[in-house]
From TrEMBL, chains A, B, C, D:
It comes from Pseudoxanthomonas wuyuanensis. NADP(+) binds at R48, R54. Its cofactor is FMNH2. The keyword tRNA processing does not apply. CDD domains: Chorismate_synthase. PROSITE patterns: CHORISMATE_SYNTHASE_1, CHORISMATE_SYNTHASE_2, CHORISMATE_SYNTHASE_3. Gene3D superfamilies: Chorismate synthase AroC. This is Chorismate synthase. Signal peptide: none annotated. One of its GO terms (molecular function) is chorismate synthase activity. This reaction introduces a second double bond into the aromatic ring system. FMN binds at R125, S126, S127, N238, A239, G278, K293, P294, T295, S296, S297, R319.
């Protein structure tokens, strides 16, 4: 299968370069009958968009989605849904000076090593512009999951460099350009980012993403594990260097009695597992956390080599986010939603349908299960 | 594709339950002509084996591999290689009392929710016994990678609860039952484990795994990224709750100037990236780190429910490791080797062959590259 | 995906050489809860078995199936079902003389060209012995299709060289070693085969296979078409050189008014389409027809070359069927059943479940359809 | 994997409806460095185009290909190549009257049964308009195969109803609108088609497609067989009801001594096998033949039912070819080329590269083979 596709039953194939004529995707396997309109993509694309605030890069893209196929009279028909976005704010000359140089920490070098040829304009295929189409595809998955199973996928910025949230409030998250869960800290973040931008440097971040309402039983054993697929999906986001499920690396120092989630007829007493055991959902909240490295595209000079193997100093003058983690929240949500929808379809293929209300604890009746 | 298979060109399909008649795997896509004998599996299987020391579970399996197909006169023929191991030390009655109960923190519950039926003997399919076949398959991948490209994959225990290595020596790793890189600390580990075992509790751990000699260019963009596939492969190992590539979560607090790996004609000046940029190998050492949660199978009682939804207290009396991380090193190596071999085959399919000596820096000649 | 696997959700991976220690398969994706016992494989394996009558090859295999995994207390658990058959009647020395020669019309030569190495014993992996495992896997698919949807898959020999059936009676098919649908013609077939065997030559054949009760809607558009997948599955059977759906090649000379199947509220008036339109089942009987070439393994000498490129005359002295088509009926049934079960699972993943009674005509109620 | 995708390493994903805004495809896995320009698609698209002559449907599409991605400065970069064609000659109202009726012999009914919703405009996704993108993708495959391995794929109309070619000349094929290999018969075909069109009826046809220069060794065993994949690819073309490799159904009545292709140091003495043994190329010409049913879209009235299950008479007034087989030649070529390129990449992944000159007979040196 194409490495530009993912998903087994709900498949997403993306294409397009940062400064090519367009980017797009083909979403296949969506159940028929889902209402979807071009306008519905705007909200999440806007959340992800460059130029949303002064804290992200200055590229301004309309990100207008055209639905090319798979939707008839406002409803999905079961055939592939192709979405297209024209690139409008291309400034290829910004990148002319790096066409023959390899920016340290960037995919320029590894793409060149692999293919012997690369599109240097804005990172070409390796640009985070590709994630626009993940977010677009994720809109479909989020909607279907919500309508069909009441599943809700949400994320937030959980750390910005050394700054950690002092509290937590879902309501705050969408009210600031950082997806930060504590309104009071927003001014602090703004000062931090302003100073960082002035310095020419960048910073890492952590993003958390969770899903509520996932029915127990979604996921598959061994190599199709829900956490394994989440790990792949989240790690595939540009700049991500680590993925945790549940307690993640904190479990290194935990005792078994501390980590295991005890169960009662009223439900689990804790959720260290992040809602997944043996690769299969338990019915609890699914929780994942990722780290995004500080962007490598800096205007502070750095040692590197050119295509001829000669030493050069590189300075990146294009438009780049000083913290790519800020805009990663909707991307991480999209990836989790796409993985969940794919697993949902796979689950009902093998095990029948679980109905719309997820069971909470074993005693519950699970209609349709194990009927072959 | 089957969720009990992984890999695109080098595919591994495993089967078998912990206390069923046998476990096995089918390795397909291996190039023809590789010499392989049944005896060659013994070393890594022994490294992974239960019963290797008093610090791991007391189950004793011969783990004798029978090659059922794909090898003729000692060499692979290009057809599927089936490997079979009979289970010999089954004690199903150990598990009779938990057939109707769900051990907290264990896949018992989620499997039951998914399938409405489960094999309770030793965890059935969800048991870490399945990883035996990953290690067996990994033996083939390790050998091919070493012979064909000089790639070497190795791992070690990088943390045991609160204990971290005080130094590092590859030579120490294979000389103690913990895969610990500092010989002097082994007595401390032994005391710790003895006390832990007596307490009835278990502990988490961290395992690092690295690959040397990986040619720049292996890996694929977007959803076939080398780090994305490593994340999925490593997260699919039982008890793993997090995966890091390179600096991993440490990058949350790093600046861009700190994280980016500068390049010179003599090579990279650091390796925060873990040898992967944009999903593609840079020619540096590939580094990954995983966390293994403390095992949930404890003889200390815990609250749970039974299949009827009633509250019960569960005590697990079977044979279980107090630290599953100890035996995870060869498993993590196997998974990394399998991912690398698969990517190697995919790379030469699309881009031709890179030859046996990996290039270090752009100026190097890369024969066969970009010839279509 | 492995080329020794097929199916998307119900996957079958086979392994094993004709004269290796064993052959086997892994069937994954089967819904949980299906009752299955080792004895249930005997019937179809016996139908396919060599040595069933004097008209097929004299190799005598017990073909005893061992279930290695995926079944607990007589029911499938949803985990991979591994089936193993030990080869017992190996006579490798029969093939010693052809190890360095390429039998004309046989895969000896092409395997050698591909891999540069081959297992010459009985054709190794290219032997029709591999089809034993298809039949075994097909037993599971047939049973599930029958129980869950009332689908029945059956085949028969539709032509033996120049001899065509003079009539048709399903009841006759299983009462003679040829799967011939006209009891009165059996003596004629026996005489024909006796003479053929004496002559040392072989003959081609046609096998028809049909499925009744397939619900309208199974199948997928474009590259996942039901007829496209049947074509691949049937063409993959050893010696098959052509596949037809419905009227097949007869449609070359048909007019549109003759070919199109008119519809009435009571149902279709004909079935030229073979129950498939646009790759999707119409609810009518699915019909397919295949040609099996005459076997190339003859004791009549033939010109060929050896591994050194020198001309030689080859005589095949092993045990071979003079008409491989005779035993192909259960194999073709198995392949059709496996394709249908896979499509059934895929259909309910995307479109929900159609219930057990297939709709006949549009006015019918189709429960669960288009509910997303 | 998406059912709107095919190929394992060279993957093609198509999207778009007959009368939607656009059709397109994403071709992934193409080696880097291949020169390709938008103009290169014109030739084969023109060969396939509706409106090429009065003998095909009157729809007139510019079929202008826009390359959206994957090509930089005229060469492929190894990233996905997206191709887009805007639909310009949509006449949706032509189809308004059949939105609630099911044309007999058409996918209207089966799509409706599957999805419960369908785009009725010109057959929507089931329209042969989709094949435009196959032809476009095929242009890339043809070019790569020719440049890299000297492989050439060509087809011709081999029968039109009862009319069979009286001779054979490749030079004639491209000089008439029928792809007919005998120039002298073209007037006869024209008269036949004129009469047919007047009658309002349609006719079936046979198309042959062959590949020269395919290296021995391409193809894979068992379920990845070259002939199996050709069968799937060709059967997936609209209106195809049968596929033959080599002698195809003629083998039903052949003796083994007649069918087997004898070998000499100078090469094979015949090619009944169609260049494939055991699913793997022998180095001979690959030959395949397909039947295309007469189109079901007729202006002669036919009995059918409507969406309410009521009987109606349907008359199709849109623009339809009286013989869809005429335009199928470039489509069949494209499908064969795509299958071959995919197998070529897979072969060099597992077995190394065979070089550009295909070996003819065993004595030949095969560089790079079996080197692992």
């Amino acid at each position: 299968m194409s490495s530009n596709s993912f998903g087994k039953l709900l498949t997403v194939t993306t294409f397009g370069e940062s400064h090519g004529p367009a980017i797009g995707c083909v979403v296949d396997g969506c159940p028929p009958g889902l209402e979807i309109a071009a306008e519905e993509f705007a909200h999440d694309l806007q959340r992800r968009a460059t130029g949303k605030s002064r804290h992200t890069s200055a590229r301004r893209e309309a990100d207008e989605v055209e639905i090319l196929s798979g939707v008839y009279e406002g409803r999905t028909t079961g055939t592939p849904i192709a979405l297209l976005i024209r690139n409008t704010d291309q400034r290829s000359k910004d990148y002319a000076n790096i066409a023959q140089q390899f920016r340290p920490g960037h995919a320029d070098y590894s793409y060149w090593q692999k293919y012997g040829i690369r599109d240097p304009r804005g990172g070409g295929r390796s640009s985070a512009r590709e994630t626009t189409m993940r977010v677009a595809a994720g809109v479909i998955a989020k909607k279907w999951l919500a309508q069909r199973y009441g599943v809700r996928v949400r994320g937030y910025l959980a750390q910005l460099g050394e700054i950690a949230p002092q509290g937590f409030d879902w309501n705050a998250v969408e009210d600031n350009p950082f997806f930060w869960p504590v309104a009071e800290q927003v001014p602090e973040l703004e000062s931090y980012m302003d100073a960082l931008r002035k310095s020419g440097d960048s910073i890492g971040a952590r993003v958390n993403v969770v899903a509520d309402g996932v029915p127990a039983g979604w996921g598959e054993p061994i190599y199709g594990k829900l956490d394994g697929e989440l790990a792949a999906a989240l790690m595939s986001i540009n700049a991500v260097k680590g993925v945790e499920i549940g307690d993640g690396f904190a479990a290194v120092t935990q005792k078994g009695t501390e980590h295991r989630d005890l169960m009662t007829p009223q439900g689990f007493l804790s959720n260290h597992a992040g809602g997944i055991l043996g690769g299969i959902a338990t019915g609890q909240q699914i929780t994942a956390s990722i780290v995004l490295k500080p962007t490598s595209s800096l205007r502070l000079p750095g040692q590197t080599v050119d295509a001829g193997g000669q030493p050069v100093e590189v300075v990146t003058t294009g438009r780049h986010d000083p913290c790519v983690g800020i805009r990663a929240t909707p991307i991480a949500e999209a990836m989790m939603a796409l993985v969940l929808m794919d697993q949902a379809l796979r689950h009902r293929a093998q095990c029948g349908d679980v109905g719309q209300v997820p069971p909470r604890i074993p005693g519950d009746v699970r209609p349709g299960q194990a009927d072959g």
